[in-house]
């Protein structure tokens, strides 16, 4: 801890500060018209959504698909899920209203219980930067819905790619005007922290039920149970 000197804290948003699966489940459950979905059925549709987003973002990062903002990918995922849920006749395209309503569920995500208080506590001691794969518009709505407090919120849309592309983490470094090693990247996803680490940022893993846990070979600077634990480790009272 004595070797960790931090001048700004960078936060992932989706999964780290907001419960993304919970918000998507709510949107899936509100599909109209749709058959009654049991819990396993909802989870299958949630997985369908997540796999679509992960696959298409990876294709964009790899250069196999032109850049599209998260809004467009959410609409694609919503159409796939709406069809699978029976929201449209077999072989038909789900109605625009159905797809749009479901896509917007990706912007109505509840914060984790410790998120709002944790950010407020840290904001009194460090500049806080949100760094998300969500588009600018989606990030604005996410922040407002969940009550997230930032000094600056950055979207991967500004780099026209997605994390873990180094260009996204470079946005935070540029805005902060600091050497990468003076920024602490906080995330519940080990893959996200590895991406930040590759650019020289310091890293903090925060455990969440929906995150991507570290592997035995990962070496992050801090490991925290929640934001309160993180604040304590950073010396914030």
Provide tags for this entry:
alpha/beta, six-stranded parallel beta sheet, 9 helices
Task: Describe this entry's structure for a reader.
It holds the Pfam family Hydrolase. InterPro entries: 2-HAD (IPR006328), HAD-like_sf (IPR036412), HAD-SF_hydro_IA (IPR006439), HAD_sf (IPR023214), S-2-haloacid_dehalogenase (IPR051540). This is Haloacid dehalogenase type II. With 237 residues, the chain is α/β, with parallel strands linked by helices. It is built from 9 helices and 6 strands. It has helices at 20-29, 39-61, 70-84, 96-104, 115-123, 136-146, 166-176, 190-198, 227-233; strands at residues 8-11, 128-132, 152-155, 183-187, 202-206, 222-224. A 6-stranded parallel beta sheet has the order 3-2-1-4-5-6, with helices on both faces. Helix 8 (190-198) links the parallel strand 4 (183-187) and strand 5 (202-206). Helix 1 packs across helix 2 and helix 2 (39-61) packs antiparallel against helix 3. It is globular and about 55 Å long. The mean pLDDT is 92.
Provide the fold topology:
Layout: E1 8-11, H1 20-29, H2 39-61, H3 70-84, H4 96-104, H5 115-123, E2 128-132, H6 136-146, E3 152-155, H7 166-176, E4 183-187, H8 190-198, E5 202-206, E6 222-224, H9 227-233
Helix pairs in contact: 1-2, 2-3, 3-4
Please sum up the structure shown.
It holds the Pfam family Hydrolase. By secondary structure, this protein is α/β, with parallel strands linked by helices. It has helices spanning 20-29, 39-61, 70-84, 96-104, 115-123, 136-146, 166-176, 190-198, 227-233; strands spanning 8-11, 128-132, 152-155, 183-187, 202-206, 222-224.
């Amino acid at each position: 801890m004595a070797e960790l000197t931090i001048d700004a804290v960078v936060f992932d948003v989706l999964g780290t500060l907001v419960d993304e699966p919970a918000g998507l489940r709510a949107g899936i459950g509100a599909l109209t018209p749709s058959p009654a979905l049991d819990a396993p059925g909802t989870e299958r549709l949630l997985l369908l959504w997540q796999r679509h987003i992960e696959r298409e973002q990876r294709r964009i990062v790899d250069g196999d698909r032109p850049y599209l903002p998260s809004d467009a990918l959410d609409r694609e995922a919503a159409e796939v899920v709406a069809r699978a849920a029976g929201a449209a006749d077999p072989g038909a395209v789900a109605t625009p209203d159905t797809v749009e309503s479901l896509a917007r569920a990706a912007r109505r995500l509840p914060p984790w219980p410790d998120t709002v208080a944790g950010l407020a506590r840290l904001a009194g001691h460090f500049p806080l930067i949100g760094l998300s794969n969500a588009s600018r518009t989606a990030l604005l709505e996410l922040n407002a819905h969940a009550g997230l407090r930032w000094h600056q919120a950055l979207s991967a849309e500004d780099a026209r790619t997605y994390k873990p592309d180094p260009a996204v983490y470079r946005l935070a470094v540029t805005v902060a005007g600091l050497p990468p090693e003076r920024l602490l990247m906080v995330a519940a996803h080990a893959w996200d922290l590895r991406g930040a680490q590759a650019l020289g940022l310091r890293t903090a893993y925060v455990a969440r039920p929906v995150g991507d846990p570290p592997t035995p070979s990962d070496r992050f600077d801090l490991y925290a149970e929640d934001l309160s634990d993180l604040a304590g480790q950073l010396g914030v009272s």
